[in-house]
Structures are given as C-alpha cells and as structure tokens.
Design brief:
The protein is α/β, with parallel strands linked by helices. It has helices at about 5-15, 35-50, 70-80, 95-105, 115-125, 150-155, 160-170, 195-210, 230-240, 255-260, 270-285, 290-310, 315-340, 355-365, 425-430, and strands spanning about 20-25, 30-35, 60-65, 85-90, 110, 130-135, 145, 175-180, 190-195, 220, 245, 265-270, 345-350, 370-375, 375-380, 395, 400-405, 410-415, 420, 440-445. Strands 2-1-11-10-12-13-14-15-16 form a nine-stranded mixed sheet, with helices on both faces.
Length: about 450
C-alpha cells in the first residue's frame, strides 16, 4: 500500500527522472513535451501564484477544463499546497457547474477558455465563497479575471518561497482529502466523493504489483481528467513511475495519434474500442478480394486461438502454428496500423465490454484488460495480463477486498475507498456500513473462486 502523498510521489519521480519527457501535447502538427524537471518548475510557479491568492491547506480549487498541460499543472500545484482539487466536466451547463462550485465552497475556479469563462462569469455572483477566476487561454482578460500567465507571474516573484510552501505540507497525511469528484447525480443531487492522496495513488501502487510499469511506458490520455478512472490510471499512475503522458486531441485525431504517439498503454471506455474495431472491419471489407480473404483467414485463425485460451485450453500444435503464421503475414501489420505497434495492453472500464470486441483486440495482439470501479472506490478489480478472462472484470486489486452480499450486491473496501461524501454525513452512512464496506449498488458474482 502506498504511504506517500501526491507531492511526495511527484518529487520522488522528479528526482529520478528530471530530464525525461513527462507530459506532451500537440502544437499544430508538432508534438512538444515538458520534462519532469520543467514540469516541477511550472508547478512551483503556479503553486506560489495560488498561495499569493490566499489558497491554503484544505481550500478547494475547482478546475473546469478539457485535458491539457495546464490542467495537470494546476492539479499538482493544488496538491503541493495541501489544497483540494474539485474536478468539473467542461461539458456541464452553467447551472450544474454553479451547483458544484457552490457545494464544494471553492475559493478559486480555473477555466480553460472563453466558453468556460462565460460559465464562470455567469455563476460568480451566486457563489459567495468564490474569490478568484483564472483563465488558461486569456492573455489580457477583462475585469478581475486572472490569466494563467499572470498567475504564474505572481508566483515567479518567489514570495512565498518554495521552502516556506514545502514546510506547510511537510506533515501532510496520505489520508487527507486530495480531491472532490462528483457523482453523476442520476438518483438525486450530485455528491462530492472525498478521495484522499492514498486513495488516488493506490491504483498506481497496485498496478506495479501485478505488471511491469516504468519510465519507458507512454500513456495516451483520452478520457477527461475529471473522470476518476483517467485520473488514477492515466495521470497519477504514469507520474508515479516516470512514464510519458500525451494528451489526445479527441476522437477525430485518435487514429492518427496511435500511429504518431505509439503508446504502450491506453485506458478508455468500451465505445471507443468498439469504434476502432468497426473502422478496422470496414477497412477489411474494402480490400481487393484476394487480400480480403487472406486477412479474414488470419483474423479467424487468431480468434480461434483467443477463444481456446479463454476456455483454458492449451491448443493443438496446428492451430497455434496457424496463429503464428497469421501474425507474421497479416496481424502484425494490422496491429501497427490500428495501434501504433507498441501497445502492451489496453484497459477498459466505465461500462461492460462487448466480448466480441475483447476477442478482436486479443486476436490483434493488443489485449484489453477489463476492470471495474466507481467514483467512490476507483479501481476495484482488473484482469491480469496473460490470464485475462473475457467476460469478467478480473481479480480484486492488491489491497482491495470484495464481498458479495446475500442479495448479490457487490461490497468493497480498502485504501482506495473515499472518506465519504463532502458535507453529506447521512448519505455517507448509507453508502459505507459500520464495518467499512462500500455498498456499490451493482450485482455481481465470483467465478472460479475469484
């Protein structure tokens, strides 16, 4: 179990990998990076800037933005102050954003562009606690809105000093709240799940116990960083091992990004994997007849091998030889075109993964590891590389306990569990029982004793 806080984790990584690429993004047709050392310098500037605005330990700093390097800088600066990040989906309408900013009692709201700034401007008079609005894009914002550059400039002056700010969080506890992530509110008002430093770092720690992850990995970040799955799996996890993170420009660019970024790990939801499968199959259907028959034979041979392994079989020699030949002649080229050719595995969560899609990617040599989790306890279980069972969500992560109640409900507890719902003790007691079990509301069962 990780006993580190996010600032401690980040500083340890910088000490080991200061000159390695940390976060990348596209500028025009060019991929640019900040190294870990450069990222730390930017984080320290923004941390000093936030401190100059009066942000203290435990204060809430809300982020209303798409994935971009300023999101990561703001988050890490907030964590390195001992403050709390309130992550808000940029797709939400103004009324819902206002509820989240007001409910969390945020003192600062950091927005990405003019569209999000318009929401901030509209809600600001209605939120008593909101003292400052910062806009990432604005060069010379109107009124008392602060640009991100101005925030960094406030911090570049050096007061308060890095030493003073480090001292403020020297005794930060891993079990202190690091973020509020709001549930969807489909059964009532959204609730802010209070996740600690330990909870957010647990997935990364647990992942390193079951698979090799290091500074040579490249994560392509596609899902919103305000989503708990992306946050723990494609933000804090790669930061903890010194890996590279590259922000996707979105669904329109993802096919090109697989070929240019060539990620080794990619976390997403089933609908994107299904869309990639559809595109590949559409491409196969347009091939000349002879080539199309060869490709379909190769895919069929690979699929037969996957289905045999999923049944627990070793397989006869001839089918295995067919699969090897298919990979050499066809599948390896398909894998290069569809995924960039370096993917070690994909991770899927957020909804059930179609078995045919899982089989297709396994046949392609880019297996999808399906997992399960919720906002309140981010990753409960995950299939393991080399022994994934299609149609299941795998085994509990190290340190996570799972129990099936008499009525079939999945119960879970462990270091990744939230501290509770912010300002809602009654709802917290309804969700977490006296023995510390979180009641997920989902139905499940164990297979083969796991």
């Amino acid at each position: 179990m990780s006993d580190l806080t996010i600032p401690q984790m980040f500083h340890k990584t910088v000490q080991r990998h200061a000159d390695r690429p940390a976060i990348g993004w596209m500028e025009g047709d060019r991929l640019v990076f900040l190294t870990y050392g450069e990222l730390l310098a930017r984080v320290r500037e923004v941390r000093r800037g936030l401190a100059s605005l009066g942000v203290n330990r435990g204060d809430r700093v809300a982020i209303l933005s798409e994935n971009r390097v300023e999101w990561a800088i703001t988050d890490l600066a907030t964590q390195c102050l001992g403050a709390v990040n309130v992550a808000i989906y940029p797709t939400l309408p103004t009324a819902q954003v206002e509820y989240l900013v007001r409910d969390s009692a945020a003192r600062v709201l950091v927005v990405s562009d003019s569209k999000q700034l318009a929401k901030a401007t509209a809600l600001r008079p209605n939120v008593r606690t909101l003292e400052h609005v910062v806009c990432m894009n604005a060069k010379a914002p109107d009124g008392d809105v602060i640009s991100f550059a101005q925030l960094a400039e406030r911090g570049a002056g050096g007061a308060p000093s890095d030493e003073e700010l480090d001292a403020r969080v020297a005794d930060l506890d891993p079990d202190e709240t690091a973020t509020l992530i709001y549930t969807s509110g489909t059964t009532g008002e959204p609730k802010g799940a209070m996740l600690s430093h330990r909870a957010l770092l647990h997935t990364g720690w647990a992942a390193t116990q079951i698979v090799r992850l290091d500074e040579n990995d490249v994560f392509l970040s596609f899902l919103p960083l305000c989503h708990v799955f992306e946050r723990v799996a494609s933000h804090y996890l790669p930061l903890s091992v010194g890996a590279q993170i590259v922000y996707s420009q979105g669904a329109f660019a993802i096919a090109t990004e697989f070929r240019t970024v060539r990620p080794t790990i990619f976390c997403c939801v089933p609908r994107l994997f299904e869309a990639i499968q559809d595109k590949v199959e559409e491409h196969i259907g347009k091939l000349p007849d002879r080539r199309r028959r060869l490709v379909r034979w190769a895919v069929g041979a690979a699929l037969r091998g996957v289905r045999n392994r999923n049944r627990g079989g070793i397989g006869a020699v001839w089918p295995r030889l067919q699969a090897l030949v298919a990979d050499r002649l066809v599948i390896s080229k398909m894998r290069e075109r569809a995924t960039g050719g370096r993917v070690r595995f994909f991770v899927s969560g957020g909804a059930p993964l179609n078995a045919s899609t899982a089989e297709f990617f396994s046949a392609l040599g880019a297996p999808i590891l399906e997992g399960y989790g919720l906002t309140e306890i981010p990753v409960i279980s995950l299939n393991r590389p080399g022994r994934a069972r299609i149609g299941t969500v795998g085994e509990p992560l190290p340190g996570i306990e799972v129990r099936i109640a008499a009525d079939g409900e999945i119960l879970s507890r462990g270091p990744a569990l939230m501290r509770g719902y912010f300002g809602k003790p009654e709802q917290t007691r309804e969700a977490i029982d006296e023995e510390g079990w979180f009641h997920t509301g989902d139905i499940g069962k164990f297979e083969h004793g796991v």
